[in-house]
Amino acid sequence: MAQSPRSPSSQAPYLTVSVSDPAKMGNGVQAYISYKVITKTNLPEYDSPEKIVIRRYSDFVWLRDRLFEKYKGVFIPPLPEKSTVEKFRFSAEFIEMRRQALDVFVNRIASHHELRQSDDLRTFLQVDEQTMERARSMEIGIFKKKPADLMQIFKDVQSKVSDVVLGKEKPVDESNPEYEKLKNYIFQLEDHLAEAQKHAYRLVKRHRELGKSLSEFGKAVKLLGECEGNALGKAFSELGAKSEILSIKLQREAQHLLMNFEEPLKDYVRAVQSIKATIAERANAFRIHCELAETIKFKEID
């Protein structure tokens, strides 16, 4: 029998995490969603084989920021975006999509051969809420801003480097043609994925709007049937009932498209942005290397 990835063998080293049970905490502008994070592992550096902690979105942001700062050259998994619109922040659909995305985020880290060894990951998975809050408050520099999503991180990094990062200018020659080829591919891939995600969004929206229209049409026709005689009234009632059934099917199809088409595309877009953030760091390091090489060269000439 095939073994579930959530039920790893006791012989092999494993680290699995699940994000579950989202719950609204607080009221008004102070309200937020908390998540239960359950860790199961046989790694010796962890305190116990199973640990349950409560985390909020800003804790996941802290983890991503710390990894981005410490693991240069590693593509850090992307976080789901943070909604600032009140009516969407606490909708059941948004909360569930975020929960799933956070689960994917932390398990990608836990399965990465380097990132899973991070002290910050162990802190995130083991300490209580008060200790976690203190860890967040100790952040310094660029990460004191606690950017809401990966795109903001990329913008913060981008503002610190020249246009060479984005390929707009090239004052120094890149010594690695394979890297240049990969960078160009990533930028083209982002454009194509963003375009695909835009069309997926429109497709989901059209399905939802059509489903809503059919529901309203069905209700109106059924009311009309109540005003008519036997045969005609029955026909209107049946038409209304069929319309409502079709409406439900379209709403389900819209949800299926959202979770299995639009959301994966959005995740791919965020992943490419994560790669771009790493490229930005690499380009900045390369620029500094070239500047130092030039400085040394001039000193030798003098």
UniProtKB/TrEMBL annotation:
Superkingdom in the source lineage: Eukaryota
GO MF, one example: phosphatidylinositol binding
Matches recorded under InterPro entries: AH/BAR_dom_sf (IPR027267), PX_dom (IPR001683), PX_dom_sf (IPR036871), Vps5_C (IPR015404)
GO CC annotation: endosome; membrane
Name of a matching Pfam family: PX
Coiled coil: none
Name recorded for this polypeptide: Sorting nexin 1
Record organism: Sesamum latifolium
